[in-house]
Amino acid sequence: MNEMRPTGFSSPKSPRKLGSKAWVPDQPGAWVMALLPPLAGMVAAGLSWDALWLLTAWALCYCVQYVSARWVSSRLNRRYLPPVLAYGAVLAVVGLPFLVVHWRIVMWAPWYLVLFGASLIAAYRHCERSLVNNVVAIISSCTMSGLVYGYDANPGDDAWPYMELRAVYLAAAFALFQFGSVLVVKTMIRERGNPRYRVASVLWHAMMLVVCTVMLFHARQVSNEALCALWFLWIVCLLLLVRACVLPLIDARHGSRLKPVVTGMVEFAASVLSAVAILVVF
CA 57 to CA 17: how far, in whole Å? Predict the structure, then answer.
């Protein structure tokens, strides 16, 4: 996993021949950040065909965003247009029937159009790996976790998709953990050696640990099962804080920088562990 870039695009290297990167997002970290929250939302509420349908459409939306961003990054070079048209057509085949069955989800269209537009602006300016663009991607995927959760919890309910409170908490929890992961990756790769990012990463994870500690302090009257879940979340937050502190130190003492794949493997494990902790609590 290289530096996470959930929007997953870069400036085209060669306009003469389209490779696989023009069609398929090649960043495992981006796939994890895009799909793990909605997958967790589906698991949290229980599998339903509507949720699986929406998750499939979301994966296609991610592909459409990826190829569209590459097209815009190339200044609308027509060589990069075929993937946009192809994914757009597949998305229409999968997504339009969903809109017919669950038409009220259209209320979320303005939200996602703004986020999609922001990612295209970043692509046009060639700053798709910026922190702001990472935040846009986090908001997109974490919002989707709440939407998928809603269609799992309320299958066939056409009065939805007003996001219920539990879904909001789920989306917010994933956003907190994913932003911390972005800070760690930037500290290790693109902003390596930047003390501001290192401090921000440590402070962010320390804040999350403090929040978990406060939750534990006020959870004395809950069931033993809920208390164990909160303790597990606290331990995960502690491990993530340790990783945010120790990983840059190991990198600095390594002589030559750690390979991005090492950071990627650590963050993949951290993302899965975070998702498990969130699911245990929710």
Answer: 28
| 82, 136 Cβ separation under 8 angstroms | no
Q: At what angle do helices 260-281 and 165-188 cross, to 10 degrees?
A: 160
**pLDDT(31) > 80:** yes
pLDDT of residue 1: 44
- Give yes or no for a contact between 57 and 213, defined as CB atoms under 8 angstroms apart: no
Give me the count of residues in the chain. 282
Residue 43 CB burial class (10 angstroms; 0-12, 13-18, ≥19): middle
Write out the two tokens for 50: 């509507």
pLDDT band at 19 (very low <50, low <70, confident <90, very high): low
